[in-house]
Amino acid sequence: xEPTNLFHFTFPELEAWxxxxxxxxxxARQLWRWLWHRGELDLAAMTDLAKxxxxxxxxxxxxxxxxxxxxxxxxxxxxxxLLHLADGAQVETVLIPDEERFTQCLSSQVxxxxxxxxxxxxxxxxxxxxxxxxxxxxxxxxxxWAATHLPERPITNLVFMGMxxxxxxxxxVHRALSILTHPxxxxxxxxxxxxxxxxxxxxxxxxxxxxxxLPALSLHAPTQELRALxxxxxxxxxxxxxxxxxxxxxxxxxxxxxxxxxxLGGVNDSPAHARDLVRLLSHLKCKVNLITYNPVPGAAYAxxxxxxxxxxxxxxxxxxxxxxxxxxKGQDIAAACGQLAIGEPCHGQA
Length: 350
Ligand code: SF4
Hints:
By secondary structure, the chain is an alpha/beta fold. It has 11 helices and 12 strands.
């Protein structure tokens, strides 16, 4: 029989698995806490579980997390992990330092089918969807590492901005969210999880109904024509329809969308583009997160000039928008936005 990976279960699934073997439901809660609260992989350490239960677990369900194949530590404190999944597929996840804490950038697919022209992950194509357990396990792996190396710096925020388009893998992303937010486990609040999507028709409704994370839109162009050039697949959803869907999104009072806008030198960073962006977003409750492009080898784009970035930001602010300019972090280790990609094919490797 194929061993069961307990890290792939949501809490109700773990409870069903435990009770189906004749154990009391509270055993599932104890086990869940060991797995997702303490990140424990050693069954012998789970001393409040009965010995025969632990023996059964050892036989049926060896505890395995993705393994760390490489760690790159940037001079600015960013840490990028290359993880091996059980079938040899590889993904990357990044810890981004922010004052005394980390934000973790999570992957949701091995590769990505969207093919955005500025994105290294998009150039890989899609290899496969990640499972909910694999997605959530990225946090446990990073947390276990950080507990040893940087115990004073907790992981407090999660962003789905790594490899993949999360809303194309929604069923598994939803499972991951239910694991990440479970109060007896990692216990992230929905305010601390952001799902960044380039906008897939019919999926914002799923995100709103689940109510387990905040939405962000990877916009990157203020007009349909330019978006079609930069993000040809995402642009199949007309910008006007996308904006209408965002306006219908049931945000709570005082909540706003985050609009991600990657500034590409000489492409989308002029004052005219900024004015188009102001017009496009004028009826939306949102804040704008500007990101400066990091060139990847062979890319057709360049970084924006600092003076153009400042002028763009200034114009938005003068029109009343809240703007954050994301400082590029981890650029020296290819961990910045649009740089996550695995250099070699991953399937079939041990
Ligand atoms: Fe996929 Fe996001 Fe890259 Fe576009 S930017 S190809 S959606 S990972």
